[in-house]
Records
---
Amino acid sequence: MALIPQPASVTLGDGHVDLASLQDVSEDVDTSMPREGYKIDVSAASGVSIRAGSATGLFYGRQTLRQLLPPSALRRAGTVSQGPWRLREQKISDAPSSGLGWRGCMLDVARHYMPVSDVLRFIDLIAFHKLNVLHLHLTDDQGWRIDVPSWPRLASVGGWRERSMMGSRIHKLYDSRPHGGVYSADDLREVVAYAAERHVTVIPEVNMPGHMQAAVAAYPELGNTDVEGRERDGSVRDAWGVSTRVLNVSDETLDFCRQVLDFVCDVFPSQTIGIGGDECPYEEWKSSVAAQTRMRELGLTSERELHGWLMGEMAAHLASRGRRAYGWDEIMAGYTGPPEAVQVAAWRGPWPTTVAARRGFDVVSCPDLSAYLDYRQSDDESEPTPVGTRLTLEDVYAFEPVPPGLTPEEASHVVGAQVNVWTEHMESARRVDYMVFPRLCAFAEVAWGKPAGKGFEDFRRRLEESHLARLTALGVNYRPQTGPRPWDARPDAPGRPLPRAVREAQLDELTAELKELAK
């Protein structure tokens, strides 16, 4: 059977069953079963049934049943998607075996705004692959995507940039089109409700205190205005990369952050709320008299500690609302609060996952050399805007979210895995499709649990035998296994490929301080 993710057990019979429609499938909840587990019985005697441990398990059973049907059944048009269908007799028993409760995908809608309809479609696709978390990256230097009524300029100013960079920033090429868009509270509530119907939790992220140039452009008083050259109004960043403009650490700016998080909590019911914390440059704080005064008042000796203090303030505020902060792994360096108040997204290679687990943080493993789907998929010069190191389908399938060397107790803190879709070079849903699929299919099987005794070649066989046809029926512009097509190339947006050894050296440098803290 060419199913993805591969179920734990499939037993084939000799007969066949004619299924007139999916409405003829009987469903039942059996709470003695695992919550996400399900069993499918296709029997000539009793028809087609799904039994599961919960409504979530029933949903996953339906996704597997949909894969048992011809790919045409996945099309939207009723003339080709209606039954009857002939199914072989079989019994399927399945439940996630990876031990990962968080099977996620981060989607960056800050660098390139994605209309709500495209976000809903993306949710359909990840839910079809039994992922259960959509981490929505809503703010960054290049755009602020949340309409917060009490801070209207975040949308009217921060939601738009005058132009966008074309390709890697080393080439300094730009288009001439304004780009932007914002989501209203109703937009976001629709996304949350739509995802919940598909058993996907939406985790919002407001990145701070770095990656905040769009907010500072909207409200300059949030920035470090006592630093020379920073006193005037700025603009939303139009280049990729990380801005040196960061939030100041005044009481008023911390209140702004709390108000934004309060609004986010009112819109998103998720237990976990992202606060970013990554790639925060310290140059402005080092030059700011106000920041240095704040450090002395708090008894802090470094800007790293100041960063940790600010993150701790936001984590404490979320805790007061019954929520939990979720931050990138840089958050661990200066954070001194209780580890149970923060969940970590470990992105800078496999080492931060180990550090987080050993320090008692719950951690979601998403190392860039295994999980960054903006990285190029081959060495073919026709790959669109080839950036980062090469990350092939096989590389993603080889991802092991739980690093070796952890004790069972430490390993229990690795609560999930996710792939990250950074969209600097993905200006449309079609481009997102190309970069994400079929690599997300490989990740889905990793996150659910790879079948014992099988390997990548078996996965590739199932992918090519049936699953690519399913993606076609679903309207996905996936990357062909033979490589990019002529129209996939982007000669107007040149990239910057990096050898893997160079990226590994960069990650070693980025995590040197974290490794020292872990000793």
---
Amino acid sequence: MNVSVLGAGNGGCAVAADWALAGHKVRLFDFEAFGDNIAAINRQKGLVCKGRVEGFARLDYAGHSMSEALRDAELVLLVGPAFSTRPLAEAMRPHVRGGQTIIACPGSCGGALEIRQRLRGLPDFDDLVIAETATLPYACRMDAPGKVRIYHKLTGGILLGTLPAASTRATLELFRQVYPGTTAAANIFQAMLQNANPVIHPAVTLLNAGLIERGCDFLFYEQGATPAAGNLIEALDRERIAIGRALGVEILPDPVIGVQQGYMQQANYQTGYSSAEGFRGIRAQSQLDHRYLNEDVGYGLVFMSRLGQLLDVPTPTMDAVITLASCIMGRDYRREAARTPEGLGLSGNSRETLLTAAV
């Protein structure tokens, strides 16, 4: 199959390597501003992959031309932080053709709807399938430009939400070629809300802010996810689950799905993260100005909090974390409104109207 991967960061390189090593023809794109991995891949004629997936992955293309990256693509995977989804979707718009399946992997709370907003109005729009996963299927980091290390590849617990829903079975068949542990979400909201990064990363980051600012080199989960951090994660998670319940979808507690995914061995908040085999060796970020706040608060928690408002679900812990993160970063994530239900084309303040807008 012809696969295009848009985004050449940690996740994008892991995705590109895995699909190529599985025998698919892979073309990789990123913007020129993020060219280190692209340059290294071209120098060494492929991607070095270590860890849970091993091998030297030869790609059909790695570069900065969107038209080349999308040439003959059957499956298009957008892999990057939430703030990359809109510019990637806008850049691909002139080159999209009917019959393609486009997946935000992960969707980071609404990536599929963001893509749909950017591509709406194209002549072939109704012939596109747009989907998102609740999570990236890996824990991974770049060892060096062109060299990706996969600490863990998910064994299950990967939810896929598809627009239109009628295309779910065909989309699953494509995606399961490399991720057999993927299951269909009940609807796009279940895939959006099962994303737990916004309840994990900001909690651990805020409670370790002093260590990060002092430049302490520590392990994010093993040393940073203390029982107190687990208590905060649990409070945030309860609100996320309540929002899902108001929409009529089951959102699994993160430690429960973490065990399904193979990350965690203990399905509890207080010790499950620090003891998780799938999180071993992942170092904390070197500064607070990082996606663990900018993405997971600015896009994830702000989106969930606003969705809670529309559904009359209280989110006091989410609101407190948004306020604290805004305070320490000297910006107002809530006012920036990087991703909101309204911005994704969702309107109304009832379960029925929101679900109707997301089909």
